[in-house]
Amino acid sequence: MNQPHVFTVILNTNRRADTLECLASLAKNSWRNNTTIVLDNHSTDGSVDAIRSAFSNVQVIELAENQGYAGNNNVGIQAAMAQGADWVLVLNEDTLLDQECLAQLVAAGESDPRIGMVGPLVYHFDEPSVIQSAGGVLQRGWGSDHLGKNEPDHGQFPAAHDVEWLTGCAIMVRRAVIEQVGMLDVSLFIYYEETEWCLRAQAAGWRLVNVPQAKLWHKGVKRDYSPSPNFTYYMTRNRFAMLSKHHAPAGVWMWAGFDTLRTLTSWTIKPKWRTKHEHRDAMWQGVVDFLHGRSGMRTV
Hints:
Layout: E1 6-12, H1 16-27, E2 34-40, H2 47-54, E3 59-62, H3 68-82, E4 87-92, E5 95-97, H4 101-110, E6 115-124, E7 127-133, E8 136-138, E9 144-146, E10 161-162, E11 170-174, H5 175-181, H6 193-203, E12 207-218, H7 229-245, H8 250-269, H9 277-291
């Protein structure tokens, strides 16, 4: 039986405990033809030594510079490709995998040569039976949202299903897709990078599939998740950058512009949103920086 070689790429920045837990769950997976690469982004918490001590078979690459989530992961993707990866799993360090997760992802991906990307059913770590994402959908202005978000899992996703994008906390990509459409877009730095990658793959004719039989728990996003102004900045700038790159229809541009203007206005004039002024300023900067063609890391 063919045993595709999966390379798992994990980015770590001072998250020693989370990364070690993630690696432990990977080590328990039934799919044995897996090589793991940890990219360390200048950690000062002893991560590198701890990982090498606990998991001697894991490759650790110490990054020379911080290129953001996209650019940093590309270092690992490139290393995986150079070593003959059949599939590359880009995985967040704050995730735990069911022991059949990899095997289920590989089985689904290999079931159809047109499938280019697969992702697991993602649950909230602090609510283990509540869904975080069963795959992504794009809203009218290409805002991103998740199928099944915050729904208790009662079997509403019984089978693998095509989606518009897959969450970047765990996205497995066929080698041929990377060879055809390239890696993550470094200019985005962080946020929307997985959505843009998915759009490129779809435009090239590949299917994107969420696999509910592959289960994973993600710590980083909770129901009461309160993102920082940086999140607002990147989500605003990169959303418009994605629209531009993919030549979005006029109606999408109009809705995205209206949605942004409405939010900016609300966060400015409504007393109940006075706590959002930093987010308002970050959103406005995101718009301005997009219009001026600025990319990469935010400068304040």
